[in-house]
Amino acid sequence: MTESLAELAMLRERLGLSPGPERGRRGLQLVGRARKVSVSMPEDLTAAIQERVGQGQFSQYVTEAVARQLELDLLEELSDMLDAEHGPVSEEALDEARSAWPDV
């Protein structure tokens, strides 16, 4: 697990997940050299992706999905780090947040 907020920020930037002008469909910055890799996926999953995105967009779709998962992993690390440093969020604070943003 990453040890500090600075390390999380550097990893996020190195992975191209930091805010920037060139973004994918879902707001992720996806720039830089590409490397061809081989992954094994269930046939039903690959068929569903190809059907959804059309010809020639499979790699972009998978790249965006992996980038989103990396962001979620980094957020989980940040959450764990904040819990370790400050303790869990109190029920009172959670109730206050729920009332401030009832639709979330």
UniProtKB/TrEMBL annotation:
Q: Give the superkingdom in one word.
A: Bacteria
Query: Under what name is this protein listed?
Result: CopG family transcriptional regulator
> Which parts of this chain are annotated as the region Disordered?
84-104
